[in-house]
Specification:
- The structure is a single chain.
- With 232 residues, this protein is an alpha+beta fold.
- It is built from six helices and eight strands, in the order ααββββββαααββα.
- It has one domain.
- α1 crosses α2, α1 packs parallel to α5 and α2 packs across α5.
- The longest helix has 27 residues.
- The radius of gyration is 25 Å and the shape is rod-shaped.
- The two termini are 23 Å apart.
- It comes from Allosphingosinicella ginsenosidimutans.
- InterPro entries: DUF4230.
Length: 232
Amino acid sequence: MDASRLKRWAPWVAALAALVAGLLIGLALRADRGPAPEHDPRAIANRVLISVREQGRIVTYSARFAAIVSARESRLGMTAEKTLILPGTARYSVDLSRLRRQNLAWDAPTSTLTVTLPPLEIDGPQIDFGDVREYSDGGLLLALTDSGRTLDQANRRSAQDELMRQARAGTATHLAQDAAMRIVARAFALPLRSAGIDASVAVRFVDPAGREDASFLDRPVRIEDAVRNNAS
């Protein structure tokens, strides 16, 4: 894996490690408060929920974007144009403290725990000012009028809008959602399976209208499947 991909996925790895560590510590501290019945999946999930919520907002993904915009103005028979290259980095996070018990649903016939996550949040994009680039043409008009300032303002507005459009576009958002769902699925699956419950964990995002926007299913791996995969 090259350095850029490693850097991009670093928040996912860090978030998973922090969440699992916090989860284990939280569950251990609660062991003295009267543990839930060993084989009651709802009770176990509720205990895990408390520890997961304590992790607060976790960053699951980060991505770098670049907006390239141009503005042109004509006056006095002359034309001036400016091009702005504006890079920025967006970070994607989920606030786990917003999880509630109503976000959990246990389906006994299929042994599946479904977790509905709060909306994905986007921080930024934060502008990387050290890498901003600007090019201009029509120096005479720029020198004689305030066209330069007008073009700069137009480019800044357009570039910031373009960066936000890229940050909200499908690819980055889907990668961030997928990372968040995997982290949460494993956080709930580990205690359930450690208790001997052969449970699947489904994690999903829903849109403002309540429709499923993204989902991930973590299924328990059967021994025979693991042996077959290792042999192939």
